[in-house]
Structures are given as C-alpha cells and as structure tokens.
Task: inverse folding
C-alpha cells in the first residue's frame, strides 16, 4: 500500500465564522426574497406556538375559544419579543418563542388543589391563567437581574469552546422526542414530508430560478403546502373515519377548531385575563424554568451566531440578550401567553438550511406574527397545519443545531483524553438523566422529586428534565476542575479569548452594535 504523503492530507483550518452563507447577519436579500423567507420562518414558528396551548389550555379548563385566544396572544407576544431581541438584545437573527421548559411548573400550578377544585371550567381556566401570569411576572426578575447587571457575563467567563460543545449539541439533540416519535404517530404524512424536504433542500438545492437557489431557500414552504394539501385530501376522503382517536388528532386537518373558534379581528392586550394572582410557591417553582430557559437560550444564541456567519457573541452582548429575554418573560406574564420565553431552536436550524442568516429576515417574520395574530381567522388557517408536518421538519432543523454544537470541537484538542472524557460524559448524562426523569414522570404521574415542598419538587424536576442544563452543569464543572492548569490550549481558550470582550475583535462592533447610535448611552464593556 502506497504511503500517504503529508501534502496529500486535507487540513481543515478552524474558522471563526461559518462559510458558504450568501447573506450573513448584517447583509440583506432583496425585499421580495426577504419577505418570502420571513413568511417561511413565521410558518415554522407556528408549531410551538400552537402545540403549547393545545397541550395546556384543556388541562386548565379552557375551551376551543380560550385555546384560540391563547394561540393568538402567544403569537403576538412572540413577534414583539423577537423585534426587541433583534433590535436591542443580542441582535442575532433569533425568534423568541414559547418554551417547553415551563411545562413542569405550569402543570404544578394547574394541579394546585385551590384551583383544581373550581367546578366551572372557564372560571378555573381564568384563575389558573392569572396564577401562571403572576409567577411569570415575579420569576422574570431573575433573567432581568442576571442580564442587565452583567452577572451572566461574569458566569460565562467559566465557559470554554470545550464546555459549550455538549450544551449547544443538546439544545438540538435534547428535543429528539419532538422529532420522529411524533412523525411516527402519522407516518403516512410525516415520512413523505421528511423525505420530500431532504430531497428538495439538499439533493436539488442547485436548482436556480432567476439566479436564486429556489429549492434550497424555499423548499420548506413548498413541502408544507404539498403535504398539507395531501393530508387534507386524506381527511376529506374519509381515510381516518374509523381510526383511533390518537391517529385522528395527529393526521386530520379539521380537528384543531382554531378557525371556527377565532375572531376575525382581535388585538391582544396586557391583563386581558384579569389581574394576575401571586403565590410564593408558584413563583419559586417557576424560577427553575426561568434558569433552564436562560441556559437553553445561551446555547441557542451561540448556535445562531454560527449559523448567521457571525463571531461568537461577547459576554456583554450575551448578558444583554438575557436581560431582554427577561423582559420577554415579563411580557408573557402581562399578556398571559401561558408559557415563558426562549429561542426557537427550529428557526435557528432554518438559518442553516436556507444559508440565509440575515437579521432583517427574522424582523420581517416578527411583523408577520404580529399582523396575523390580530387577523384571527387568517392566522388560525396557517396554525391548523398538522403538527406531524412540523415534526418532520424538526428532524432536520434540530439535527443542524446539534451539528453546530459539535463543530465547536474544531477549536479544541480532540486527541486529549481529558477532552474526550468531558465531552463524552457530559453528552451521555445530558441525555440519560432527563430521560430518567421523563420516564419516571410518565409512569408515576409525578417527578422523581415528590416531597411535601411543591416548589422544591418543581426546581429539581424542571432543572434535571432539561438536557442542555444538565450538560452545562456537568461540562462546566469538569472543564474548570479537571487537570485545568495546563489545559488552556486544549480547551480552545486562546481562540475563545478574543470574543470574551466586546472590543476583543473588530468584527464584534459590526455584528452587535446597538442601532440608532445607542452605544453612546450604553457603552459596551
């Protein structure tokens, strides 16, 4: 066998910015293309916007009209939060949507005996929503204080490229239950969607229309329309008439009842459900979800920066974004969205799938959210897309985000047994511990922590049900205590050091400076 010459070996140099993007964070496509891409992001965000109220509102005692109004409110507030984050927060192209991290403490509030004993369903829904609002308003102070005081920036000094690998990877991989397990509930719709999307967006991505890679950019929108029509034909032809209820819920296009339950024009407003109620137990439990969403958002911000072809956000910018996330959670509490705030991971993945990381596209998407949330029935039409279709797209989008996390290994020494140990253990425990908590909760109808202190139970069950949170605790602890004296280069710290301060790299000013010359009043540190 011929010996391989050194010059024949391919060396891939580590790159600060991901290459191959036609539009990065501060470059913009034409207005026509930008509007189409923004609408595509809006459609993708509807999966989470609809799923969370669909899951929680019936448990709260609400009817279809209540569910439609919560969906409208969540969509409206998501648009506002996204505009605030892209203008004044990290300025990364991220959609600030609803978070599943809040489900555990919200279920705890729903099961509170003082609320569960209310006989009238609508009254119970209103009282439960007000209790959720109160706990969100109080707990949002955690993110606001950590963000604007720059405490989170101080905490982030303990992060390294090595420590961030499992965190960012599990921001994507940790959502695996919302991927193929949901596709399998209606495989005749989900599988064609998955195959068609991969075929058009990857194998046919070089097809151009007027010099635009049309299929690469807009394949998701095309696939949703085609499969949605196909699903409606199956529904109208009676294919699901005699199937199980679970199959009908996941496959039929006429069971959401959002269109009939929505008003033509409705503008959400603060305190629309009444005055919030406050309870120390509920607020302490909700604070755990706020911490979890903060950690998940940190990982998603770093992934979004990579997929926007930007440099990693400096600690100051990251902390500023967390502060605005706290403002977003406060808005969730004031308007009554039924959940808290986090980065929409699927939309971060779409940046990579389309290779368009433009901030303007996301801002246009936020405009669509606000517009269609006020035009109730038009917004409800798009929100009636079967969730199975979104789950098929998630299989690709979450995978892209996970791969971005793994790409941070290029800045570390992966021939170091220390590094292999830290990444391997963090990834494994980050998946294994939340899976244990999930299976225990499913079989026992309560989390592993079930003491008489409800707030303590919510803390433990929420924190250890989040893969990125577990991964952060494990990886940062190991990375900062295990043979750390001579491991700076192996950890990737020489590369990372430039991006820890705002003025450490000249590109930071280009990507993260506030608009309207606001940096004069809020000088970066």
Result:
């Amino acid at each position: 066998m011929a010996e391989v010459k050194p010059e024949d070996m391919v060396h891939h140099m580590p790159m600060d910015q991901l290459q191959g993007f036609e539009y990065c964070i501060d470059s913009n496509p034409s207005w026509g293309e930008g509007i189409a891409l923004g609408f595509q992001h809006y459609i993708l965000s509807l999966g989470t916007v609809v799923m969370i109220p669909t899951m929680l509102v019936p448990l709260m005692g609400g009817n279809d009209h209540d569910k439609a109004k919560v969906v409208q409110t969540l969509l409206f507030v998501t648009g506002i939060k996204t505009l605030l984050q892209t203008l004044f927060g990290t300025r990364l192209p991220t959609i600030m949507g609803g978070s599943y991290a809040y489900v555990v403490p919200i279920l705890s509030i729903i099961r509170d005996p003082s609320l569960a004993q209310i006989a009238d369903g609508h009254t119970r829904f209103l009282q439960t929503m007000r209790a959720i609002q109160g706990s969100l308003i109080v707990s949002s102070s955690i993110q606001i204080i950590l963000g604007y005081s720059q405490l989170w920036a101080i905490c982030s000094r303990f992060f390294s490229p090595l420590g961030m690998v499992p965190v960012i990877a599990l921001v994507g991989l940790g959502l695996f239950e919302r991927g193929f397990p949901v596709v399998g509930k209606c495989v005749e719709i989900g599988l064609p969607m998955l195959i068609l999307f991969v075929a058009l967006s990857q194998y046919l991505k070089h097809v151009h229309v007027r010099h635009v890679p049309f299929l690469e950019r807009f394949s998701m929108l095309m696939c949703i329309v085609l499969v949605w029509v196909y699903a409606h034909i199956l529904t109208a032809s009676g294919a699901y008439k005699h199937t199980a209820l679970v199959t009908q819920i996941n496959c039929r296009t006429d069971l959401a009842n959002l269109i009939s339950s929505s008003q033509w024009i409705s503008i959400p407003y603060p305190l629309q459900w009444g005055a919030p109620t406050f309870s120390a137990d509920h607020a302490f439990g909700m604070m755990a979800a706020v911490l979890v969403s903060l950690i998940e958002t940190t990982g998603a911000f770093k992934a979004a920066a990579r997929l926007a072809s930007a440099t990693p956000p400096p600690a100051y910018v990251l902390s500023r974004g967390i502060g605005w996330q706290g403002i977003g959670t406060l808005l969730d509490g004031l308007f009554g969205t039924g959940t808290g705030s986090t980065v929409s991971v699927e939309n971060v993945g779409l940046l990579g799938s389309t290779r368009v990381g433009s901030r303007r596209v996301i801002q246009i998407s936020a405009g669509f959210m606000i517009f269609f949330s006020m035009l109730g029935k038009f917004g409800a039409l798009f929100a009636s897309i079967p969730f199975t279709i979104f789950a098929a797209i998630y299989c690709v989008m979450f995978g892209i985000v996970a791969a971005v996390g793994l790409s941070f290994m290029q800045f570390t020494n992966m021939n170091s047994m220390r590094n292999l140990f830290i990444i391997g253990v963090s990834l494994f425990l980050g998946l294994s511990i939340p899976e244990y908590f999930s299976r225990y909760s499913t079989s026992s109808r309560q989390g592993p922590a079930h003491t008489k202190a409800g707030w303590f139970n919510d803390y433990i069950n929420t924190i250890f049900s989040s893969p990125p949170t577990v991964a952060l605790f494990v990886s940062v602890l190991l990375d900062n205590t295990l043979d750390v004296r001579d491991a700076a280069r192996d950890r990737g710290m020489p590369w990372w050091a430039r991006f820890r301060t705002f003025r450490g790299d000249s590109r930071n000013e280009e990507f993260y400076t506030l608009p309207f010359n606001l940096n004069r009043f809020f000088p970066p540190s």
